[in-house]
């Protein structure tokens, strides 16, 4: 069967904040850009971001980029790459003002400047009082950001391929990336999209866990495609559990609630964070707060009949503040927890929220893998940005509101680097004859499979296994069993069956293809977690409770082909300032 091919200067898979910020840069430079998205662009998960975007504007408290950098390095538990962190924090204010000038409707202070609120892990001076660094549009910052970027892209004539799913990466014999195969969901047609630059901006993969704040589309597709094409995945053991997902539902209650003055209580009405983070209490970083909640539940001080959640109290903020600053939160609490936070506390539990690991890149968004020249050789033609990438600015733990910043700073930087690289190589490389073979084989297998298990069933087994064996606290025996179980589930995935074989908008087929990607993400996570014998950031091991910089101040790389782990050094040297050496992390 002849397969349709289309050519572009650049292809971006993903139309969230990261993909759209990069697309804008490229379209405005006059390049022919295709942006693919499984959903309408403004439904990407960025739209759900509530709390804000970090930038040291200093509108409320004194602040500067160097303090922001220090907080981010400390928050990362020293696993973040300090060159990338310096780059991000130095450009933070600039990109936020740029968004303001694009028309993003930030909330305002009395004096007309952008409104900022405190968030976890933000200190004002090295180790000192809390800074107020998160720029916000009520509790709908991501919504404001994504719509602003979409409108700008429409204006710049970016070409969107809406409800198109990227399936596999195309590489030639030298390993250069030449584009992707993709499925038009409406018709079921598969095409080859060829490009001189391919950028993955496919977002997170939180859906590999059972309790998750992530959208259903967050299935780690970019990571799956990369892993299948021989690209290693970096630091996949590090998953952020957000302390306050609505109990039993998973929907997020933003840290902005605690930023505005809300706090956590156990069944005795005690502000238990006093014991875990005596200085900043509820605004310690997320790994610390999530562990505290888990400890309270384990030690029998949880609330409710099953003593399995805690309470988030905010009624003392008053109805006016709640209605003005946290209207979305109030709505979520009323709809999903059946409480009105103006009067009653919200039941919450730690819930998977963010993937710190991903496709390894440098701070220009170029994908880097170990090769003859060292651990970070650029893969020609391949870029990644946003939550699917591991730059790594978040290291072992991301600070709240640093992700929206990450996607805008590195979205723009990657766009700029692609423009430079395309000037150097103006011609398309030749596609290999077998460019679409792997994709077509995967689809053919699904079309012909008989007597297989159904996708939902195996997917459920995967999510349950991740939740149970790789949660907030990790145990050696559980991880070992987890690896065995995930291997078994991966095997089951190779023979899942879809009953509906039709072409038009076949969501069953799409879910099966997503499961292939979730499998890669889950395997990488479990195997990397078993490998790291220390506790750092979000990775808390019962048998190795301390951070061990002598042995483990290094990034993990997981190779799907032979399920092998390798490691590479952390970039401790910033661009211009002195390095922040690892030290004990207290809040
Ligand atoms: C509920 C919630 C609240 C949050 N709040 C904040 C906050 O206040 N501040 C903050 O800094 N961070 C926050 N975060 C994190 C932050 O929002 C995300 O990390 C960030 O928005 C990710 O942006 P992205 O562009 O990388 O990906 P996304 O916005 O997730 O976009 C991914 C895109 O990729 C597309 N895609 C995926 N796979 C494919 C495929 N195979 N083919 C085609 N397209 C594909 C999707 O359709 C989508 O367009 C929050 C996260 C959640 C879940």
């Amino acid at each position: 069967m002849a397969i349709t091919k289309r050519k572009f200067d650049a292809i971006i898979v993903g139309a969230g904040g990261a993909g759209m910020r990069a697309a804008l840069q490229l379209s405005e430079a006059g390049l022919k850009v295709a942006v693919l998205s499984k959903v309408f662009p403004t439904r990407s998960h960025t739209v759900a971001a509530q709390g804000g975007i970090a930038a040291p504007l200093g509108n409320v408290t004194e602040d500067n980029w160097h303090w922001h950098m220090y907080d981010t390095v400390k928050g990362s538990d020293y696993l973040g790459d300090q060159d990338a962190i310096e780059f991000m924090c130095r450009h933070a204010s600039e990109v936020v003002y740029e968004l303001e000038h694009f028309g993003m409707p930030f909330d305002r202070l009395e004096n007309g400047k952008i409104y900022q609120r405190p968030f976890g892990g933000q200190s004002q001076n090295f180790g000192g009082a809390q800074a107020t660094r998160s720029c916000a549009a009520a509790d709908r910052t991501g919504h404001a950001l994504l719509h602003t970027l979409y409108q700008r892209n429409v204006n710049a004539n970016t070409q969107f391929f809406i409800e198109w799913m990227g399936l596999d990466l195309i590489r030639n014999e030298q390993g250069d990336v030449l584009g992707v195969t993709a499925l038009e969901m409406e018709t079921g047609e598969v095409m080859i999209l060829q490009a001189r630059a391919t950028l993955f901006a496919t977002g997170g993969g939180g859906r590999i866990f059972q309790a998750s704040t992530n959208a259903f589309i967050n299935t780690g597709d970019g990571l799956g495609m990369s892993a299948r094409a021989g690209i290693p995945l970096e630091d996949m053991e590090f998953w952020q559990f957000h302390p306050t997902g609505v109990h039993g539902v998973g929907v997020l209650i933003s840290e902005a609630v605690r930023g505005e003055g809300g706090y956590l209580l156990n069944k005795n009405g005690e502000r238990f964070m006093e014991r875990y983070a005596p200085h900043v209490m509820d605004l310690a970083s997320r790994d610390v707060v999530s562990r505290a909640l888990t400890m309270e539940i384990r030690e029998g001080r949880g609330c409710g009949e099953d003593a399995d959640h805690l309470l988030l109290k905010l009624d003392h903020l008053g109805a006016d503040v709640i209605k003005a600053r946290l209207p979305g939160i109030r709505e979520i609490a009323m709809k999903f927890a059946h409480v009105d936070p103006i009067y009653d506390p919200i039941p919450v539990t730690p819930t998977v929220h963010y993937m710190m690991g991903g496709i390894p890149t440098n701070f220009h968004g170029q994908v880097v893998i170990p090769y003859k020249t060292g651990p970070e050789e650029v893969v020609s033609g391949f870029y990644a940005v946003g939550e699917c990438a591991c730059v790594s600015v978040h290291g072992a733990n991301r600070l709240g509101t640093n992700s929206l910043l990450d996607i805008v700073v590195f979205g723009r930087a990657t766009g700029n680097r692609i423009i430079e690289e395309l000037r150097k190589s103006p011609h398309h490389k030749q596609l290999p004859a077998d460019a679409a073979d792997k994709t077509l084989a995967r689809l053919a297998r699904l079309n012909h499979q008989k007597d297989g298990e159904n996708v939902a069933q195996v997917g459920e087994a995967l999510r349950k296994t991740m939740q149970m064996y790789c949660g907030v606290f990790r145990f050696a025996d559980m991880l070992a069993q987890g690896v065995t179980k995930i291997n078994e589930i991966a095997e089951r995935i190779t023979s899942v069956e879809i009953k509906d074989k039709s072409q038009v908008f076949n969501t069953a087929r799409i879910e099966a293809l997503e499961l292939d990607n979730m499998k890669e993400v889950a395997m990488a996570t479990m195997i990397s977690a078993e490998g790291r014998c220390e506790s750092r950031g979000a990775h808390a091991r019962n048998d190795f409770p301390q951070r061990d910089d002598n042995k483990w101040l290094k990034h993990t790389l997981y190779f799907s082909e032979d399920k092998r782990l390798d490691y590479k050094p952390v970039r401790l040297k910033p661009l211009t300032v002195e390095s922040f050496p690892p030290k004990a992390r207290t809040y």
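The two ends are 61 Å apart (CA to CA). Residues 49-139 form one domain.
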